[in-house]
Design goal:
single chain; elongated
Length: about 140
């Protein structure tokens, strides 16, 4: 990322970085899908892949770890949805077996990282309010 901007916590997450890279690949690959799929599978797979990173970003701004974990879970379900779309793309011969395998490996990595992040978030009991200095009484 560019050093002239503040780096938010979600941008530092390995899982967000991997999902960002995967999302870019999805956009490149789906550019070759049939034009009649623009509002069908192309739109769906792009949306679900983008939802992984956007849910991590939105969740990072939540105050409690429970809320953060909720958005991590939503990112996880979006990754699962993306797997279904990738399978459909393979079944319809929109992608090669090699592209399918590469996509599945990327998604497996992302899902494993999301699972680890979720376990970490749900296991913590603190929230941002615990870090706000209180006025002395």
């Amino acid at each position: 990322m560019d050093n002239e901007f503040y780096t938010y916590s979600f941008e530092k997450l390995e899982v967000w970085q991997a999902a960002r890279k995967f999302k870019k690949t999805v956009y490149q690959v789906t550019g070759n899908f049939p034009k009649e799929e623009l509002f069908g599978l192309t739109s769906q797979i792009r949306r679900s892949a983008g939802s992984i990173t956007s849910n991590l970003a939105e969740g990072s701004g939540r105050a409690s770890d429970k809320d953060k974990a909720h958005f991590t879970n939503m990112a996880y379900t979006s990754a699962l949805e993306t797997i279904d779309h990738v399978i459909t793309a393979l079944d319809m011969n929109f992608i090669s077996k090699e592209t399918y395998i590469d996509s599945r490996k990327s998604l497996d990595e992302i899902i494993n990282k999301l699972n680890s992040l979720y376990k970490y978030q749900i296991g913590r009991k603190s929230n941002l309010k615990d870090f706000i200095p209180r006025k002395e009484e």
